Amino acid sequence: MAANLPTQVQGGVGVTEPGISHEEHLHHDDHHHDQHWLFKYVFSTDHKVIAKQFLITGIFWAILGGTLSSLFRLQLGWPEATLEWLTPVFGKWIEAGKLSPDFYLALVTMHGTIMVFFVLTAGLSGTFSNFLIPLQIGARDMASGFMNMLSYWFFFVSGIIMFASMFIETGPAAAGWTIYPPLSALPQAIPGSGLGMTMWLVSMALFIVSQLLGGVNYITTIINLRTRGMSLSKMPLTIWSFFLTAILGLLSFPVLLSAALLLIFDRSFGTSFFLSDIYIAGQALNNTGGSPILFQHLFWFLGHPEVYIVIMPAMGMVSEILATNARKPIFGYRAMIGSLLGISLLSFVVWAHHMFVTGMNPFLGSVFMFLTLIIAVPSAVKTFNWLATLWRGNIRFTSAMLFSIGFVSLFISGGLTGIILGNAALDIQMHNTYFVVAHFHLVMGSSAFFGLFAGVYHWFPKMFGRMMDEKLGYIHFWLTFIGVYLVFMPMHYVGIAGFPRRYYAWTGFDSFSQFADLNKFISVAAILAFFAQFVFVFNFFYSIFRGRRATENPWRSTTLEWTTPVIPGHGNWPGEIPAVYRWPYDYSKPGAEDDFIPQNVPFSKTQSSNLPYESEME
Amino acid sequence: MTALGILLVLVLLLVVFGLLFRLQILTSIFSGSSARDFGMSNRVNAVLLILFMVIGGAAFAWSFGDNFNKMNPPIASVHGHATERMFWTTMIIIGIVFVLTQIALFVYSYKYQHKEGRRAYFFPHNNKIEIIWTVIPAIVMAGLVFAGWKEWTRITGPAPKDSVVLEVMGKQFNWLVRYPGADQKLGVVNYRMIDATNEFGFDLTDKSGLDDFVAGEIHVPKGHPVLLKIRSRDVLHAVYMPHFRVQMYAVPGMPTKFWFTPTKTTDEMRAQLGNPKFNYELACNQICGRGHFAMKLNIVVDEPDDYVAWYAQQKSFSEQNPDVLASFKQKEEKLVVKEAAAVATPATKASL
């Protein structure tokens, strides 16, 4: 064990040596190695600090992403209204009192990019993989604290570049978050494909580096640094989901990098990977032989696993929180792992369902339709298992629990329409309509956000040693839950009617002339739901400083992170790392004294509740 | 000034909320209700969850019914009827699952809310149940896949030999339409030949292109298969014709196609909808730039006879643009002269 421990922790202080006593450890900390604040809070190699850095950066990006969506919802809800009052902020992007169409597309693009990558990938899995992996598997820190720090700072720099791209003259990337060439390759086609697109690509390249550094670390840590007794079949589902998420990221992000590099080549060095037979702005380009469809294959080879990268950590955390607060073991632990494995595997072979009507060979369409609809089975199993976990439980509605229940509800609502979209014959009509927008905002957008909120409410006490305010949590939950449904359910109607996405206005078409009221309604709901998030932001920052003090294990949970001190220091456990004897879901076990038995309690101490075969065990 | 005033009011409001919040916390600590309150807030949330299900479910059902007629674009193609049936069948199936699972979720949440002294039922797994709810979705999905696959292969299969052929080309930011003319053969095009007049890039040295004509809107005959050949000359676009349930990307450098059979003329549809201004529309459905939202083309479905008459009236591109034709003739002649010269020179030399 000792050989695997990171030596970088505390700049080589011997805190990680096993057997070191509690007192000695504190002694070290207090007198000899008071870290400079810069290394304690900024360039920290401690996984808990890095997790908080990811979280707070993620919150910043989420607010920005939400603001952008409110802006374009203004345009969609009130296409006739004057937005002159925004001129002081946006200058020339307001044309004749309205958002310029170019700016509208930039808003849509940046909203997607920010939410998918910066919030739901980095903010969600960056936060909780970092925070929970060492704590739940019983490790002092990540395998490489230094790489972990680099992972955050690559993300930070990537964010700076993306942020800066919003302030340049030609505006940020505006070709949709999927940046399909040739639109994204040719500055003549749209102003956002000038410098803005270059910055988008550079930013994403750095982001991918950050993801890979993080991913390698998560995988290594989970494989090598588990505490004594923590076999794979005793790992909490959170860890399983982070583990598989990291593997997905490691295998798919490099493909996006390759797509980005080839696009950079096409943009700047005159190659023709994605360009062919183009006449634009009065000029025939020399590029021939490239294929825009190739880019889509490369993009979605990441893009589809990406949605599972977003949702799987949320699934893991929700499983954990449902079990803890229902005071019941998660139903079908092994089936839950199996379905995660199934989803992970299948997520690599369904990408072309985003491309049924791109002109791809229809036979390929058939194959991908088949594979896509198979993935519904493990998703269904997960849902049924969550429901079975609630059945005959003894449920405490903490804020985290409410968000977890909300997650399941949204996952069902959004997931089911995937069965329509995965069917190639039906996708002909639905492709790129608001039906798709409604589908993915429910199933991966809102659900993942709910998972994120659930995680923050649940693990906040371990992060900051204080509790978040429950009443504000309830208010936040109910406003958000109702808001999300009010926004996205009506969007299905608009989608069935065939409204295309990324439209600045539908007023030019008779086919899309109905539903002006509904669009207004959606906009109102969206903007209100967005403002409701400030309840959370207030609660979060207020509670860091003024929240009620937490106890070591406020939710009476079984996993290892709750065996640490209220605020775990460097190395997480002051003394020896606890050993693990049982699975993480011994809630309400018959015969047990309490309604939970932590993972580090040996069977020898729980004779009254042991199942027959368990009495033989340690 | 007003803005400043509004800002000030907002800030004050926030301060008031902050104070109220703080006061609420302090009172709850002093009265001790923060410790006792767990049962109460638990009940409230459980009731809210049930209310959410009942009221939310009712509101959803009502609004869905209320908007149902508005959300279905009338169908005007043969395969459209088939996919529409499949769409609503699938919707019913997922609707049933939606209702059952949501009810289970909210009812369980309510029913099994925390009660003092009760213990949750230790129920870690049950292989039989798990096999059942793995197999049943698998069977349902297999059925849906099979139906979808059959329809998909039929729709994307080869177009009938006697299809009416026309070409739609996307550009920033409108659609161009080309018909093959009397010979029923689309002439060769080359993107390097494109200019302001020759928007398609006709290569008029190809004889089959001489009778091709360009149209301002799409005309197709009712009841006859129509094969759309789709191209783009700059960025990606997508041909989206919601009434015909047709969608296919327009890709620069890679021609695509889609065939369908219209079932109702524009006039019939106008009569059916009671809207004399109705037009079938073609929209762009792949982000293509500033004017993406305005890339519209009207489609007219004619009675077959009217279509034939319309077709016969059209003048070919080469006829309408004699200069373009002339410029190609010139080029061709130059080429011929050059070739002749190239052949002639050695011959003359030899004869000397």
From TrEMBL, chain A:
Spans through the membrane: 54-76, 103-133, 153-180, 200-225, 237-265, 307-323, 335-357, 363-381, 402-426, 438-460, 472-493, 521-542
Chief localisation class: membrane
SUPFAM superfamilies the UniProt entry points to: Cytochrome c oxidase subunit I-like (SSF81442)
Biased composition (Polar residues): 601-612
UniProt keyword Transmembrane helix present: yes
InterPro entries listed in its UniProt record: Cyt_c_oxase-like_su1_dom, Cyt_c_oxase-like_su1_sf, Cyt_C_Oxase_1, Cyt_c_Oxase_su1_BS
Protein name: Cytochrome c oxidase subunit 1
Native species: Hymenobacter psychrotolerans DSM 18569
TrEMBL record, chain B:
Top-level taxonomic group: Bacteria
UniProt domain Cytochrome oxidase subunit II copper A binding: residue ranges: 161-313
First-listed, main subcellular location of the protein, grouped into a coarse class: membrane
Cofactor: Cu cation
Gene3D superfamilies the UniProt entry points to: 1.10.287.90, Cupredoxins - blue copper proteins (2.60.40.420)
GO molecular function, one term: cytochrome-c oxidase activity
Pfam families in the cross-refs: COX2, COX2_TM
EC number from the UniProt entry: 7.1.1.9
TM spans (from-to): 6-25, 46-65, 85-110, 131-149
GO cellular component terms, semicolon-separated: plasma membrane
Catalytic activity: 4 Fe(II)-[cytochrome c] + O2 + 8 H(+)(in) = 4 Fe(III)-[cytochrome c] + 2 H2O + 4 H(+)(out)
GO biological process: ATP synthesis coupled electron transport
Location within or outside the cell: Cell membrane; Membrane
Cofactor, free-text remark: Binds a copper A center.
All copies of domain Cytochrome oxidase subunit II transmembrane region profile, residue ranges: 62-159
Keyword Translocase found: yes
Cited InterPro entries: CcO_II, CcO_II-like_C, Cupredoxin, Cyt_c_oxidase_su2_TM_dom, Cyt_c_oxidase_su2_TM_sf
UniProt similarity note: Belongs to the cytochrome c oxidase subunit 2 family.
Biological role stated in the UniProt entry: Subunits I and II form the functional core of the enzyme complex. Electrons originating in cytochrome c are transferred via heme a and Cu(A) to the binuclear center formed by heme a3 and Cu(B).
Protein name: Cytochrome c oxidase subunit 2
